[in-house]
Every structure is written in structure tokens, then in C-alpha cells.
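Researcher: Good morning. I'm working through a list of sequences from a screen, and I'd like to move beyond sequence-only analysis. For each chain I'm collecting a predicted structure so we can compare shapes side by side. This is the next one on the list. No need for commentary yet; just the structure.
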Amino acid sequence: MKVSSRRIAIFSLFLLQVAHISHASEIQPFHTRNLQPVVQIFGLPPAEGGALVPEGKTEARLIFEAGSHFSISSNATELAFFDGETYRTTISLRHGISKLWELGVDIPMVGHHGGAFDSFIEGWHEFFGMGQGSRDRHERDRLLIVYRKDDTNKLDHRD
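Model: Good morning. C-alpha cells for this chain:
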């Protein structure tokens, strides 16, 4: 694979910026979760820092997350096909009740939509020489969540 000097220059600038940011501030875990549509129903907690809110203090956060999905898997009896994007906005409230305990609640609003970022992601993969994984052979900007077992649709969610 031939790598252009433009790609090298852009990537080098990106690395310099990341190095500058990480040097200038303390590195802490950031709030993130698995936004795959069929995983969210299990209510798994997000990955985030382990520090508790100090006793008597209250913390409020507004969190916006976006995830793009494209996955196809099949065998002789099953097919799972996920194509689309998930957007999740969460209002998060935490209150420290002691040194070892905090009380909290998350109020989410979740939406599944067709992909607005499909062409950007394909361009990203092309720019860095990564494979498309058949993404470029399927319709863009659509929502398709299908699970089929023994020729029966168990899940079929579309626009």
C-alpha cells in the first residue's frame, strides 16, 4: 500500500495535537458505553471513572453519545444484520451520601436512525487504508436491525 505524504503530514499533526493535550492535562477515563441496539436492553452501566462524588456534593451531567453500526453475521440457521446509528442523550445526577457511597440516577433518551455518517466512515476507512467490510456494497443512510432464525424474523426494525 502506498501512503501519500499528505496522509503522513495530517496523521503527524494529529499525533502532535494528541501528545500536547495528554501532556497538558491529567488523563482520566471518559464516559462511554456499548450503543449496539440489542446490547442496550440489558442496561449495562457505562465505563467511566471510579471516583465518587464527595460527601454532600451533587454532580449533574448532560451526556450525548453517538454510535454507528454495521455488522453482518450468519450461519446455516441464523442471520444478524445491523446497519444504522444510535444516539443517546442522558441526564445524569449523582449525590455523595458518604465517603464510600453515592446515590445516582440516569435518565436516557435513545434513538435509532439511518446513518448520517456512512460516507464519512467510508472516507475514514479509505483514507487510512482500512477495509470497508462490505459496508460500501450496501445502501447508505438506512436503519436495518434484523435477526432471523430458522427462516423466521425474530427482530426486524427498519426506518
